[in-house]
Amino acid sequence: SGNYYNQGEIRKKELEQSCCVLGIPASDVTVIDHRDLPDDPAVEWDTQLLATLVLKHIEAKNVDLVVTFDAGGVSGHANHISLYSAVRYNVCKLLWVLPWTGCRVLVLESVNLFRKYISFLDVLISCLLPRDALFILTEEETEQAKRAMRCHRSQLLWFRQLYLLFSRYLVVNSLRLL
């Protein structure tokens, strides 16, 4: 629920505001508040527990595409990496237990620090490297993404301000199928 520093309620509201900016209705936002899944960048979550929760959501919402972090979690955040592990665990279940779901999984590529902060210049590099999907945002989409990020006021520390200015993830995202 984003309760790191006891800001769970604030972060829930910020998430809903951010999703609204992106055109995602609040009714499509699900926040999981589970005592065994603390919001903490140093805590690895239980893979099977999280996999079960994710799979229930996929089934309940009839999800056909999941986009998640890769094994690097983009920023090395343990919770992000745990989410990747849980989704990866579920891919085996989806293929063997629920093959008719047709749910596909794309993972966002983690890049090195240099590439992470060269903004639009990374488009050239990303176009040359292998990937399954490449999303290049228009200037309007980049501004929309920045407006959505600014909704997360409680998390906009100095380094995230730099992220808003220089991150390639606000311009280009390369993904691969899991």
From TrEMBL:
GO cellular component annotations of the record: endoplasmic reticulum; membrane
EC number: 3.5.1.89
Gene3D superfamilies hit by this protein: LmbE-like
Membrane spanning residue stretches: none
Gene Ontology biological-process entries: GPI anchor biosynthetic process
GO MF term list: N-acetylglucosaminylphosphatidylinositol deacetylase activity
Pfam families: PIG-L (PF02585)
Enzyme superclass (EC): hydrolase
Family of this protein: Belongs to the PIGL family.
Stated name of the protein: N-acetylglucosaminylphosphatidylinositol deacetylase
Encoding gene, per UniProt annotation: Pigl
